[in-house]
Specification:
Pfam families: Glycos_transf_2. Its main location: membrane. The chain has about 325 residues and is an alpha/beta fold. The chain has ten helices and eight strands. An eight-stranded mixed β-sheet has the order 7-5-6-4-1-2-3-8, with helices on both faces. Helix 2 links the parallel strand 2 and strand 3. It is elongated and about 90 Å long. The structure holds uridine-5'-diphosphate and magnesium ion (MG). The site of uridine-5'-diphosphate (UDP) has 16 residues, from strand 1 and helix 3.
């Protein structure tokens, strides 16, 4: 027996948010109750190591329609989102963070744009990035402008706070790649879209889980997934250095013939260093793409669900 389809599914990835997750969920649910007749909340516990799962179990006891999935380890927010999108059944799905930095008050306008204006994607755009440290703001501005140049998608200010109609979710599910970049993929999909701008409030508690390295990894993955231009740079480097080599070759021959050949020790060392580093960088770029192909070809599941909680007396659903 299939349960009735809710109007809205809310998908929330969480990682180590035991302190405020219950309160955030309460606020989100309160807002939802005043907006739609039926909804489901799907929380993906991305392998939290603190008491987040216990908090989710408590929430399941009081909440109307609540599902929690626990991933077998920390797979990262992108894959936690995948898990949520694959399990959501609503006629529209809203993706939001668990720390109230995606204000539940915006749900009203998002749902209105979907219901009344027939928009298929409603994306919330960050007006300012909250009290974000300057280095992080600068880093993300740089990343988005590089990504824009390389891929043609302008994602400056984009957030993962989005509403997707079920048609969009269906199309999204048909994208087979393992290296997912939610913001970019929804931009690629097209569909009729609307934007709502918002100011990012302070975090509800705790600290952001993103380290510099995890952000760098996200940035490299996004660029590799959305552009092959860096591969062309490799050939360009090659060409530039070939011309350089020809010029230097001519100069060396000329000096040799005119008998004024000097022991160009410095030149040799410099050339070795420069050419060596260019080759290394080029190999690294190619390596990133090969790694990405390798990961896709392995065809492993994107994530593994180790536990599942359901607030409603659910029919004997097939276990994951
Ligand atoms: N998150 C996750 N897996 C991770 C890191 C973060 O599911 O490995 C969740 C986190 O619990 C939050 C959302 O992703 O709901 C956004 O994370 P965070 O607030 O740390 O990022 P920021 O707001 O700084 O972009
Ligand atoms: Mg946050």
């Amino acid at each position: 027996m299939e349960r009735t389809q809710p109007e809205i599914s809310i998908v929330i990835p969480v990682y180590n948010e035991e302190k405020h997750i219950a309160d955030s969920l309460r606020q989100i649910e309160e807002e939802l109750r005043s907006l739609v007749s039926s909804y489901e909340i799907i929380v993906i516990d991305d392998g939290s190591k603190d008491g987040t799962w216990e908090q989710l179990a408590l929430t399941a006891r009081r909440s109307g329609s609540f599902t929690a999935l626990k991933l077998s380890r920390n797979f990262g927010k992108e894959l936690a989102l995948c898990a949520g999108l694959e399990h959501a059944r609503g006629r529209a799905v809203v993706i939001m963070d668990s720390d109230l930095q995606h204000p539940p008050a915006l749900l009203r306008e998002m749902i209105r744009l979907w219901r009344e204006d027939g928009k298929e994607i409603v994306e919330c755009v960050k007006e300012d990035r909250g009290r974000e440290p300057a280095n992080k703001a600068l880093g993300s501005a740089m990343f988005y402008s590089i990504l824009n140049r390389l891929s043609g998608y302008d994602l400056q200010g984009a957030s993962d706070f989005k509403l997707l109609d079920q048609r969009v979710v269906q199309a999204w599910r048909e994208m087979p790649e393992r290296n997912t970049f939610f913001r970019g993929m929804t931009a690629w999909l097209g569909f009729d879209r609307a934007q709502v701008s918002f100011e990012v409030p302070e975090r509800a508690g705790g600290t952001s889980q993103w380290s510099f390295l995890s952000l760098l990894k996200l940035a490299v993955n996004a660029i590799v997934a959305f552009s092959t231009i860096p591969l062309r740079f490799v050939s360009l480097f090659g060409l530039i250095f070939f011309f350089g080599a020809v010029l230097l070759g001519i100069q060396t021959l000329y000096l040799k013939l005119t008998g004024s050949a000097v022991t160009g020790f410095t030149t040799v060392i410099l050339l070795l260093l420069i050419v060596g580093s260019v080759i290394m960088i080029s190999l690294g770029i190619i390596g990133e793409y090969i790694a990405s192909i390798y990961n896709e070809v392995k065809g492993r599941p994107r994530y593994l669900v180790s536990r599942r909680l359901e607030s409603q007396a659910a029919p004997a659903a097939a276990a994951d």
